[in-house]
Structure formats: structure tokens, C-alpha cells
Design brief:
With 102 residues, this protein is an all-alpha fold. The chain is built from four helices and no strands. The chain has helices at 23-36, 46-56, 60-77, 84-94.
Length: 102
């Protein structure tokens, strides 16, 4: 005989809306992730950070996606610095026409 807890069937949904990050917050967000991962915090140029912010509109999930793809591409190409040209390439060629919503 199996006894089910009366709490087993309960479900709690939470809807949380976070504000978009501004440019400075986006940079700090990226740097904190790089620091946590043990990476160099100066791997993205200022102009690359500008483009990441513009394309992501400060939405952390979009920031993550652009940065992840940029880091992977830079590694594949043997680049030690991610500049605006590399970020633009990722946005135009790897983000399905600039779509970073996924």
C-alpha cells in the first residue's frame, strides 16, 4: 500500500519580471560571470560590450547567449580578445538573423 502525501499534488507557480540591465550593469554582469568561471575579465573590448548591450537590450538571457557564442567562436579561432567585429559576426551569422530570444 502506498500512502501519498496531501502535499504531493500541490504546485506553486511564480511569475517574476526582472527589469532590463543598463549598459553599466550589463558589463558588471558579464564580468562577474567571467570571474566566477575563472576567466579574464578584460576579454571583451568596450565596443564589444556596447554591441552586446545594444543587441541584448540588457536582457540577461540574451546577454548570456551572445557571450557564450562569442566565447566559443573566439576559442575556435584562437582569438584572445573579443572585439566588436567578432560580436557583430556572431549576431549576424550565429543568432539566426539577430534573434537572441531563444
Amino acid at each position: 500500500m502506498t500512502v501519498k502525501s496531501p502535499y504531493h499534488a500541490q504546485r506553486i507557480d511564480i511569475n517574476c519580471v526582472l527589469p532590463h540591465l543598463d549598459r553599466a550593469e550589463t558589463e558588471r554582469y558579464i564580468q562577474s560571470h567571467l570571474a566566477y568561471a575563472g576567466g579574464r575579465q578584460d576579454i571583451f573590448t568596450d565596443t564589444a560590450l556596447d554591441d552586446i548591450y545594444k543587441e541584448s537590450t540588457g536582457i540577461p538571457r540574451r546577454v548570456n547567449r551572445i557571450c557564450e557564442k562569442s566565447l566559443m567562436y573566439a576559442s575556435q579561432q584562437g582569438k584572445r580578445l573579443i572585439d566588436e567585429h567578432l560580436v557583430r559576426y556572431i549576431i549576424e551569422h550565429e543568432m539566426l538573423g539577430g534573434d537572441t530570444r531563444q
